[in-house]
Amino acid sequence: MTRLTQARASGDRGSAIILTMVVLAVLTGLGMTVFALSTDNLGNARRDRQASSALANSEAGVAQAVAYIKNRGIGKLACAPNCDAANPWGESSLDGDAFPSMQVTLANRETYSVWIETIQPMTPTVAGLYRVRSIGNSGTGPGARTVEVDLQVAPFEFPLAIVADSVQAGGNGSITTESLFSTGCIFKRDKINFQGIDPVYGIPAAAHSSQYITDSQATGSSCSATDNKNIHKPTGSTPKYCNPAYPYDQDRQGGPLTGTTCLGAGGAYPQTSLIANAADLEAQYGFNLDGLTPGQIDQLRTSAREQGFYFTDTSAIPAVLQSDTAAMAYPNPVVFYEFDPSVSSGGRTVDLNDFSDVVYGRATPLAATDAACHSRNVIVVVINGDVRLNSNQTLVASVFAMGPNPYGNVQKANGTSQLIGTLYARSIDLTGTADIDLDACFLANLPGQLLNVEPSAFREVDR
User: Fold this and answer.
1) CA–CA separation, 302 vs 336, rounded Å?
2) Number of C-beta neighbours around residue 388 at 10 A
3) pTM beyond cutoff 0.70
């Protein structure tokens, strides 16, 4: 009995060790599984963070591209997507050459590369389509995301022309390749020398009024339908709808030009010399006769404040914009003067002659591709004040003398001054020797602050 019991005890002696080893193996396997799952989860979490961060970086690139257009316009994107070193904003990183697109390095090895492609170029009357492509990176490995955003870009609906409630002419100034629009009287029409084709509307430069155009000398906004020097005469046995001296002019005394020498060849423009009223003027030429909307004025006011060029108590041009060196840092300054209408003191006239004509002047006419064509363009807004341009100044500018009455006057433009751009005012005195021009270079380089930029599509390319 003793020997049998001892034998049985000896046979069970190794089973505990085997059981322990099995349990250890199972626990080790479970631990390794948990470790592997944890490692995978940590990796997935890291990759998710990288992907999210990369997406945020790519969206930051889009935001910077939109800011570029709103500040610099689209003039220097004509070469996109192969602008090379001339403009990294218009240089694609996909074309394989040595020139990089716009690249920004953030903290912790995070970056984005962004460029803007021209899908449909903007024109003064048709919105353009521009595609922003941005690649955001976060760290190394899979942390890269690409997004595309399509932007519709169009000028504000302000008139790309000369516009005033009344115009007094005189002297020997000229208006070249630009239209003159008025909701009031245009006096001394025989003293306004128009030349060339308006590139905005594709028509000969001429005068267009919803009131009367006359050769008479007068001032103010009052003019008469019975003035014998009105250029059109709708009454009498032979109505005078065509005035051969001003074949392209239109006003409220005009009419159909069929059978006259003023009718364009083949029935082309102009077919009528009539503008019935202000609404007809606005409808025919498709712009906002108020110049700028309250929202657009507020946008320009904000831009001026950001640049440090918003003033309520001085009409002086900022010293930095008078300097031929310092002004180069402000290619498109928004200079905003908003005077208190309740204060009767003087100093409400902004003298545009004080801008640096080395920085903001140039020759004209220039094509958009001309080597001398630059994108520097001053935006001037004056509320409750007036504007003066004279004394041999040459200035590329968009000027808005908004008024209201009795302000918003462009005082005698003389001294062989030259404005290249647009002019909106309550009244314009052209009794001097000023020249006002609009060329292809100006239209191709409208300041970004005068553009509407609206996203029309958003895509995550790598989804």
Assistant:
1) 9
2) 21
3) yes
